Amino acid sequence: MLYIGEGDPVSERLKSHGVNKYFWSEAFVFTSKDEYLTKTQIKYLESKLIDLVKNAKRATLDNAVNSSVPTISEVDEAEVQQFLDAIQLLIRSMNLPFFDPLSCRSQPPADDEIVYEFRVKGHLGRMVIRDGKYILLAGSTASKEFNPSSSQGIQQYRTALERDGAIVDGERSGELVLVRDIPLESSSRAAVIICGGNAAGPIKWKHNGKTLKELEQT
């Protein structure tokens, strides 16, 4: 559960939400130096952050009223975009995925990209590394059954991917098919989705007979 809003003054708004929002355990405050942002720019920033969370589908928003996007000039929009980029970078640095979509439109691997494969129980996962992300490629197949070693978190995450429409039932019994690319923070998490249980990604993913770990060490 997530709430996004402006506060002026911030301290009073935090006190109010601390009492009225039962789910709230952490708050993050972003400010501009010397009141650099105008009220309209702040409203624009608030609206854009809300849209990012809605599109990512990683959290349920507690915002009761949809925030309309105010009209601002191209110059103001460029300035606000810098703040927006900085906020996303800081949130990601704390390993909070609010703004990152669970999946994205399929993008075939480029000619110069290394495609790693993970074969398990007749299923085939395919993965590339882009911009520091481990991308499970659409067309990969995965086990529908979870291993006894799988945690509740693993099961909830893959269930979320199914709700997102990134993973669907395959033609074969007990098989799932990825229909969208899935960006992940680690190769192990990518392997987990394919096999349905704990897996060491650096040694499971291979290219031309060599493991990801071996290739990264060369």
- What radius of gyration results from the CA coordinates? 21 Å
Fraction of residues in β-strands = 15-25%
In total, how many beta strands?
9
Helix content, binned percent: 25-40%
Task: Write down the overall mean pLDDT.
Answer: 90
Order of helices and strands: HHHEEEEHEEEHHEEH
Structure summarized in a few sentences:
The chain has helices at 10-20, 39-56, 74-93, 152-164, 187-195, 201-204, 212-217, and strands at residues 116-120, 123-130, 133-136, 141-143, 167-169, 175-178, 182-184, 206-207, 210-211. The protein has 218 residues and is of the alpha+beta class. Strand 2 and strand 3 form a beta hairpin.
What does this structure look like?
- The chain has 218 residues and is α+β, with helices and mostly antiparallel strands.
- It contains 7 helices and 9 strands; from the N terminus they run H-H-H-E-E-E-E-H-E-E-E-H-H-E-E-H.
- The strands form 3 sheets. Strands 1-2-3-7 form a 4-stranded antiparallel beta sheet, covered by helices on one side. Strands 4-6-5 form a 3-stranded antiparallel beta sheet. A two-stranded antiparallel ribbon has the order 8-9.
- A hairpin with a 2-residue loop joins strand 8 and strand 9.
- Helix 2 crosses helix 3.
- The longest helix is centred in the middle third of the chain and has 20 residues.
- It is elongated and about 60 Å long.
- The termini are far apart.
- The mean pLDDT is 90.
Summary tags:
218 residues; 16% strand
SSE layout:
Blueprint (H helix, E strand, L loop, with lengths): L9 H11 L18 H18 L17 H20 L22 E5 L2 E8 L2 E4 L4 E3 L8 H13 L2 E3 L5 E4 L3 E3 L2 H9 L5 H4 L1 E2 L2 E2 H6 L1
Helix pairs in contact: 2-3
